[in-house]
Amino acid sequence: MSLHDQRIEGDIRAKHVKIGRGAVVEKGVVICGKDGGEADTVILGDYCYIGRDVTIRVPEFRLGHYSKLHEHGFLHGVKPLQIGRNCWIGGYCTLDSMGGLDIDDNVGIGAHSQLWTHIQFGDIVEGCRWNSTKYMHIGKDAWFVGHCIVSPVSVAPRSMALVGSVITKDMEANHVYGGTPAKDMTDKVGGQFEERTIAEKESALWKIIRDFERRHPEFLEQLSMGLGGQFDAATRTYKRTYSDAEVAFLKEYTPRIKFTPFDEPHFIDRQDKRAMRETLFGWDTGAAIEAVEL
After folding, report:
1. Is-contact 248 216, C-beta < 8 A?
2. Mind listing the pLDDT tens digit for each residue in 90-148?
3. Which CATH number fits domain 7-189: 3.90.1170.20, 1.10.357.20, 2.160.10.10, 2.30.30.180?
């Protein structure tokens, strides 16, 4: 079996299915509509992975290139659930899309975490006030380290929640949160990311490529970077060739490094922006589905 071969051992029930190169869906996986029937659309990107016994019950599901959704996850809802490129979802996570959930590129969600977009249980005839749904978008490079519980808040890019955090308020860009309920700890621990110059990023990437070549001499001098090269540290993009060296490199190092194809449009089609387009222009959002090329 080559790096590029698909291995689909789970059950995918959908009217429209697109599966990229090298995608793996393990045994026991079920992807279907909320009621157990057919979903409308399932899109699985190149070299993505879905682990054993994951259950996905939503009308539309997307999982981006090189993203990993590990074993025993439970994903459900009456609205689409989209996960971008280079994401890592640990085992036993619950992702709720009753209000709609979009997880952007490069997001990490540690094992046993729960992301909720609805609260429903109390008797509304008797006057229970707690009955609502709310759309949630997780910004690029956000990271929930593990065992986190997240209510439908705004999660800005590069924000981070430490182990066991219970998130009840919006998270600011490159701020770090911890505790129950979570509080902003950035003043004490600093942000998730430090500032780096382009030269520093290029130096770090070059060391990683050299390390890869030392351990895989069959790929020596097959990867390049910088001006005219394959990988661009300044833009976090790469020229996709599907070579064995490229795929082996990205499969081994993602999510520790994260690059997206420079010529590809955004993988997820944010639901809040879809609704705005439909309201203002009456656009057919189905066109966004057809625009994804695998």
Report:
1. yes
2. 999 999 999 999 999 999 999 999 999 999 999 999 999 999 999 999 999 999 999 99
3. 2.160.10.10
